[in-house]
Amino acid sequence: MPIMEHKSMAWRMSVNERKFIETALASDLRVDGRRPFDYRRLNIKFGREDGCSEVQLGETHVMAYVTSELVQPYRDRPNEGILAIFTDFSPMADPSFEAGRPGESAIELGRVIDRGLRESRAVDMESLCVVAGKLVWSIQVDLHIIDNGGNLVDAANVAALAALLTFQRPECTVGGDNGQDIIIHDPKVVEPLPLVIHHLPISVTFAFYNKGDIMVIDPTHKEESVMGGKMTATINSNGDVCAIQKAGGEGVMPSVVMQCIRIASVKAADITSKLKNAVEVYNTERALRKVKRHPSKMAHQVSVADITLEDKQVKDLPRHQAKMACQPYIGSSQDDEPKVDTRTSTNADGNSSGTHADAFVGGPSKWDPYPLRVGTSQVLGTLTVVKEEQVVSDDHRAVECSLDHTTTSSSGTVSVSDAMQKSNTSKSLKDAVKCLLEFFLPVTMDFWMTSVATEYWHFAVVKVIVLCAIRCLCQWLPSKLMKAL
Amino acid sequence: MAPMEVDRADGRTSNQLRPLSCTRNVLHRAHGSARWSQGDTIVLAAVFGPKAGTKKEENPEKASIEVIWKPKTGLIGKVEKEYEMILKRTLQSVCLLTIHPNTTTSVIVQVVGDDDRPELSLIQLEVQMIIKNNSSIIRAFLALRITHVMGLRTPQLLPCAINASCAALADAGIPLKYLAVAICCGLTGSRSVILDPTKIEEKVFSYSCMLYLLVDYFNCLDRGYAACAKISEFLRRSMESQAPSDLTKTT
C-alpha cells in the first residue's frame, strides 16, 4: 500500500553548494553579493483594513493580521489586556512545512516574537483594560509565513510591529441603563483608537559559520541550511536589549556575542526608521481616504451584458486588463491617484466617447460643488479663448475687450452680453432700471458662483456696475444727442 | 419576469463585476503561485508539483490533489474543511489525473482579504458555478444559507479561490484539461439576480418565503454563464500577456 513520502522528499543541499557557500564566506563574500552585515531589501506594505501588513525581506514574505475582541482577563492580571501571537507556517512557504501541528521552528519563532513584544512591555497592556477584572481587550496577531527565503524571525517581527502600529481598535464606553453595559461604538461613528506602543523591539538574526569565526546578518534560506549556529538579538532604537535567543548550535566566544549585539543596535535603528516611514505614509493615506466623497457613479470595471455578450465590452477588456495587470497589489492607495487623474482629465476635455475608458476607475470620484468652475478654469488657461468668445458674442465687443482685463467669468460675460442684447430695445430711464435689474439678477448668480470660487469677485462686482453704467449711457446718449441736435 | 434594477452599495448594476486582477509567479519557493483579486476579496494560491506517493484512501492509479485552505485569521474549522472538499473535487475534474499516477499535488490557498464585515446576513440563495471555457457547466452548486445556523461565511471567497488555484496550477505547469473559472450569483428578495455579491450586500437582501422557483435557478445559471465567459477571457489574456520571468524552480 503506497504511503505518503513527504519526509524523504525534503530538500537537501548538495555537497557542492555547501562547499561553495562556505568557501565564499571564508573570503567575506556572500552568494547574493551582499556584504556580511547587510540586510536584504525590506518592503513593507499595508492592506485596505487596519492592522493588516505584508512584509517582504528579500525573498521572504510574511503577512500579519491583527484582530481584537473583548474577553475576560487572566485571574492573576485583572487589569491588563491580553496579547496573543499565532504563527502559521503555511505549507506554501516551504515544502517541508506541514499543515497542522506547528513544528519546532514555528514554536520558537512565536516565542521569540512574543517575548520581544509582550515581555519587553512594548505594547501597553493596561490601556486595554475596560472593566477591571471583568472585560479587557484581547489583541490577537496572526502571522502567516507565505514564502520562506530565510530569516523568518526578523521578517515576522517587522510584520507584527507594522500591523500593531496601524491597528485601531473600536472605542467602547461603559454606560447603558444600569451603568454596567459595555457599548462598542461602530468605527464609522466614533473614531477607533490606535494601540499604545511604547517602543519598537526589532529582532536581528545572525548566522555563525566555521566554529564562530564568521558571522553574517540576515541569512538566506541556503545560508541557513549551511550555518553552524544562529543567534537572534531583539533590540530597540534606544539601544535597550529586549531579548536574546541563542538556542543550541555551535558555541561562540562571548566577545563575538557582544559584537553582534553592538551591530544589531545599529541595524535596529535603521529598520525602525524604515518602519516608521512606512507607517506614516499609510496613516496619511488612510486619513485622506476617510474624507467623505460622493459615491462614484461611474460604471465599474467588467460589465456583463444581460445574457448576450456585447462586442464593446470585449474590446475594452484588453485595456482594462492591461491596467489591472500593472497594479497587482492594492497595498497603498497609490493606484487611486492615477485613476482620479484620468477621470478629471477626460472630464476636462469633455471627452464623452471615453466613458468606457473611465469605467476602469475604482477610486473616489472628484467632488466639485461648482461645476461651472470647470469652464472658467479651462478659460483661465487661455486668454485667446476668452477673446474669441467675446468676439463671437455681441456687438459691444469693443467695450467688452477694453474692460475685460481679468479672464475670469468669461461665461459670465457671455451671458451679460446676451442680456444686454435683449434689452437694447428699451429707451427710457425706467426701462433702463428695469433692464438693470433684469440682467443683474441672473448675472449675479453666475458671477457669484464663478467669481467667489475664483476669488475675483470684487472685479466682477465692479465690472457689473461699470457695464450697467455704460449701457445706460449708451441708451441715453443717442436720445439726448438727438434732442440737442 | 423583467429584471429589476437593484441599487447596490458600491454603485454597480446587477450585472457588473468588481475589478479583476491576476498576478502569477508571486512566490519563490512554490512551484506555481497566483494571486487573484476581485475587488477587496484577495486570494493567494500556491501549488507544489507532483510528489511521490498518495494517501491510503486515494486511488493510486491516478494523481491525487490535496487542498489546504488557510483562513485569514483564526483556527481551521469545519467551514475550511468544506471549502477544501469543494475545491478538491473541482480541481480533480480540471486536472489530467492519468498523466502522473501515484503522485500528490498540493494546492494551498491563503485568504489575503475578504470583505470583512462581521455581520450575519439573511437568507439568500447562492449559486456558485464553475464553468469550463465557454462550454459546459461542470458544477452548479446551490447553497442555501441560513444565518444563525451556519454562521459567518463569505460567498465570494470560493469562486475567487477556484480562479486563483487554476491560475496557480497553470503557472506550475501541471497538465490541465481546461481552465475553469467561477462566479457567484446571488438572488435578491425581489427575485433579481446580482452577480458577484459582496458581504455587505447580503445584509440588505431578505427573503420572505422559502420556495425558490426553478426559473430563478435557471436565470441565475444563465447570468453566471455569461459572466464566466468574461472572466475566462480575462484569465486567458492575463496568461498570455505575462511571460514567465523565472523559469527554473529547482527547490
UniProtKB/TrEMBL annotation, chain A:
Keywords: Cytoplasm, Nucleus, RNA-binding
Entry-linked Gene3D superfamilies: GHMP Kinase, N-terminal domain
One GO process term, biological-process aspect: nuclear mRNA surveillance
One MF term in the entry's GO annotations: mRNA 3'-UTR AU-rich region binding
Chain spans, region Disordered: 329-357
Source taxon at top rank: Eukaryota
Localization, UniProt: Cytoplasm; Nucleus
Pfam families (alphabetical): RNase_PH, RNase_PH_C
Record field: compositional bias (Polar residues): 343-355
Protein family (similarity comment): Belongs to the RNase PH family.
Descriptive protein name: Protein ECERIFERUM 7
Organism field: Zingiber officinale
UniProtKB/TrEMBL annotation, chain B:
GO BP terms: nuclear mRNA surveillance; poly(A)-dependent snoRNA 3'-end processing; rRNA catabolic process; rRNA processing; U4 snRNA 3'-end processing
Subcellular localization, as worded in the UniProt entry: Nucleus
Any one Gene Ontology molecular-function term assigned to this protein's record: RNA binding
Keywords: Exosome, Nucleus, rRNA processing
Residue ranges annotated for the Exoribonuclease phosphorolytic domain, each copy included: 16-175
Highest taxon of the lineage: Eukaryota
Protein family per UniProt: Belongs to the RNase PH family.
Stated name of the protein: Exoribonuclease phosphorolytic domain-containing protein
UniProt organism field: Zingiber officinale
